[in-house]
Amino acid sequence: MLELKNISFGADSNGSYKEIIRDISLTIPDNRFVVITGPNGGGKSTLAKLIAGIEQPTGGHMLLDGEDITNKSITEKARLGIGFAFQQPVRFKGITVLDLLRIAAGKTISVSEACDYLSEVGLCAKDYINREVNASLSGGELKRIEIASVLARNVKLAVFDEPEAGIDLWSFKNLIRIFEKMRTGNIQRSVIVISHQERILSIADEIIVLADGKVSKYGTKDEILPEIIGSDHVKGVCPKVEEGGNCDV
Amino acid sequence: MSELSNVQLQLLKEVADLHEVPEGAYNLRSNGKSVSRNTTANINILTKTEGSGIDIHIKDGTVNESVHIPVVLSESGLQETVYNDFYIGDNCDVLIVAGCGIDNCGTQDSEHDGIHRFYIGKNSKIRYVEKHYGSGDGSGKRILNPVTEVYMSEGSTMEMEMVQIKGVDSTHRTTLAELKRNAKLIVRERLMTHGQQNAVSVYKVMLNEEGSSADVVSRSVARDDSYQKLDLCILGNADCSGHTECDSIIMDNGRILAVPSLEANSVDAQLVHEAAIGKIAGEQLIKLMTLGLTEQEAEEQIINGFLK
Ligand SMILES: Nc1ncnc2c1ncn2[C@@H]1O[C@H](COP(=O)(O)OP(=O)(O)OP(=O)(O)O)[C@@H](O)[C@H]1O
Ligand SMILES: [Mg+2]
Questions:
Q1: CA-based angle B165:B171:B175, to the nearest 5?
Q2: I need a labelling partner for B57 at 20 to 30 A (CA). Which of B189, B260, B291, B296 fits?
Q3: What separation in Å is there between the alpha carbon of A38 and the centre of ligand 1?
Q4: Tens digit of each residue's pLDDT (9 = 90 or more) over A198-210
């Protein structure tokens, strides 16, 4: 269970102090699938970075299963079981996909285990396992490898920042399966997904709308989804798909 | 190799990946003397009659064979200059592994200056691996100043892998190459310096005839208070193509001077150079830390990958 108590974060921007996260309090129980949505610049990625320890809050407290993790480092939070898939994945010269998955697993997993994670994100494992995680990978490939790097870890809380961005529609179906599987696995685990996609919102247990650094709406999917469908920041599925067109979703 | 000490065996392992007597032709030089040698029907190794060193003769059409010529120095204060000349026939496909390991536990400087000259016959393919390694905690310096000269005939290919990752206090390496028609040179250099180490690496590649090409890529890491100068020059004297790249990570108080240069003496020469120096990207460290590594572990992974 993750608890945020009055979390705030501010940073200097063009010489003046800017409040980016304003006094957010939330509780995310185990086995919950929570989707955070909201307009661009609303503070979603910043909140995710605070949870992962990449930014340190300027105020408030954060607890994981009752333990105060407010000021823990990125490494400590990772070791406590927090996983984070970046909105913009990082590239490395010389580090292969297999290396990255092994680092993520924290042990020398076999090639076939590593391949399983790649297959889950819809990549043909043998084509990718020895590729470098460098600029030669396309945006969508990189994004899927980023997701695989979180799947390879045994996390209690997984945070995915716009996992669907740059991913084609076939994989999109896969992606939803991945989240559902993570939630129904045998360990107590919560999944937080930051998304603008209606299809992802529609499988949420709870939806949080973040705007201007504050929680503007928070409730079950059934309460929130009807209120926000059609708003600027929620994207529907492409009409072609709805008509049973080419996209195999 | 039973007459070798443990230190010498360790050095051999580092520079030539050798755990036992290599297959094929070899010449092992230890503390200033040739101590064992093997030749094959196609590869002959002769001690030079004048000066120090060996001549390696590889017959026309020799394929799938290898030559190992490792050098180990484990006595403090030894200083030597050695000439190794390779005469490679036409249509060969051969792996050549050279390398020098110095262990200096004493107070006097140890120095090995290996001058390697390659005369490569027509359409031959050579893969050349050279590793340099230093160990020992004496105050005497470990110094390596290798010179590599490559003369490439028509249609020949040379792939060079030059690696110096650890323990060499001072190095000044010079690589010169001259390429004829359709000859192709590929260089992959990997360099890491620590402490007060100083490394200079100079390449001068002359693309003299039509269709010749070179791709010279140096990746380096300068840590602590070390200094590196990377001077990669390609001259295009014909209808040819050349690419040089220096890509460096700088850490601590390291210093790096990258001087890639191109000289085109023909309107048909196509030459490109790239150079980049920077510290490890913060977001790379952060990503690996979110996977549970400490900052130091993340740094090691990034550097190991970079220099792989
Ligand atoms: N370290 C920082 N310093 C200054 N401003 C920042 C910093 N980090 C984020 N911001 C600003 O805070 C706001 C929130 O950014 P954030 O990336 O969290 O938005 P987001 O909700 O994820 O948006 P998007 O939907 O576009 O991904 C933006 O205006 C951004 O420019
Ligand atoms: Mg964002």
A1: 95
A2: B189
A3: 12
A4: 889 998 999 999 9
